Amino acid sequence: MASPVLEVHGLTKHFAVRAGLFGNHATVKAVDGVDFAILPGETLGLIGESGCGKTTTSRLILLQETPTAGTIAFDGRDIGRFDGAELMAYRRAVQVVFQDPFSSLSPRMRVHDIVAEPLEIHTRLDAPAIRRRVAEVLELVGLSPDVGALFPHEFSGGQRQRIAIARALVTETRLIVLDEPVSALDVSVRAQIMNQLEHLQRTLGVSYLFIGHDLATVAHISHRIAVMYLGRIVEMAESEALCARPLHPYTRALFAAALPSHPDDPPAERTIVGEVPSALAMPSGCRFHPRCPLAMPVCSDVEPAVTVRDGGGEVACHLY
Amino acid sequence: MSAVLEVSDLQTHFFTFGGTRVVKAVDHVSFSLAEGETLGLVGESGSGKTTTCLSIVGLLPRAGRIVGGRVLFEGEDLTRKSQRELRRIRGRRIAVILQDPMASLNPLFTIFRQVAEPAFFHQQLRGRTLRDRVQHLLRAVRIPSPEWRMREYPHQMSGGMRQRIVGAIALAGGPRLVIADEPTTNLDVTIQAQYLDLLKDIQRESGVALIFVTHNLGIVAKMCDRVAVMYAGTIVEQAAVRELFNAPRHPYTRALLGAVPKLGSKDPLASIAGQPPNLASLPAGCSFHPRCPEVLPRCASETPREIQDDHGGSARCWLVSDGIARS
Asked: To bridge A7 with a disulfide, which of A73, B112, B141, B294 should be the other Cys (CB 3.0-4.6 Å)?
């Protein structure tokens, strides 16, 4: 088996906040001990509801936050020990595409300059070489190289997202964090972008961390899926195995809440009640127990350990 | 079953640049809705689904005008009503739920005041009766402990709760028709599932007719009895929900169904080439022809007419009309 591009171990991010009128100090455990690895050419899907910590996880990987604890290893080496030049190389190899292509592209820059910017920061290529490279990636993402002279407002949402992908790819990227890259797009355009992403992965061997909340979309593009709830990964498995047999009650609740693809699909029973609790008032024991339909007495006292799922993957639940 | 709402040949145009440019946002749209029925209005952004709804309730922005057609609601033509008369209908007999609950709620007023408003103005309820009514409505949308929740403000509620409160306001006047414009887009999946189940329960109890505007075919499959698919301002296909999923007739509907990932399937998605068109510069003939995988020569020049079938469905496509001509 190939060694992972990125491996995070015990990754933790706590935010100190003041709660209440008299400023009692409290901590929000946004990410609380997360382990996963991403192999070359692999897509890891990260799924969960708002506030589960998926965006904080991506910000930690992108070096936009410093972890409270835990390590991120790139090509087997801890990035916490990287020196300046190595950190630059890391930033070059790990890129991001955001949800909303209307706010992630500067309206005052031409497409060519948007896509060329990472090259100007990270390489010493001269202008003609940069132009060649930009034309090359624009073509890779299905745009004509001529669009370089245009401004983002001249493009539709789907084309803008292609520009954002081109910018993420231009530095010979190893891993792209895709933070809900198709949620803001029209249905007919979503499929184009999803297919494009899969095609790029096959040709370039780039890895993806695909963050989303729509189960069908994440399951379609990902090789493996990690399900997050309140800062922890509660279940992680191969995409097919997870869809065929979700084990954790929260994963099952997500599947029950997924919309049918045909009106004759059997209606899911209502398995989950209430809303995600605030990360300030973290439940004791298993974080999911107040909403869990299968909660046992032990669940409110003891945090479940991660166990190996039968059929591969892992799950953190007292039932298994 | 009598129709609660009957929209026939509705045309809404936007006039910009001093009336020199005309955008046909809604172009000859017809559908009807019976008591207790749910119609899904499906389309991409700019397809005219929201403008259709705004035309029904008379809330078009200043540049927009209904230039043709009728909107019959319980036998009355709403396009001929004054704003004053419409105000008596909106909030009482027709209610609207919008996408962003934070924008529909006033952050400065308590939940009580906002939920009470329709009953206060339309039904002249006061004091104890009004308070009981508000608590009853909040309980109907599953707000826990409404006695004290109603004294709170919108910012003290979660997103799902806010959207349920907007639902309570919509129900306050005892409406015959609720128009829900993408009400769950901002909600998490488990909260969305709860909200959709709640809407269904309420509909079962009250028999209200529901128009569900969405771009999500999963919501259509879960919620709707009938579907109207909109593209570039027109309804390109209309059918009962099972028929639409089992045997879509318009190539655009087929393409939409193929473009949605199905849970547990890794089959490549059938993407639709190109972008949704700009309404200001529509292609000649059928608006979908530049993206259509089954395009015929005549599609580029002649606009297909709406072909009705025997069970209330319709489609606007030369493939369909040719099929009927042949049989």
From this structure: A73
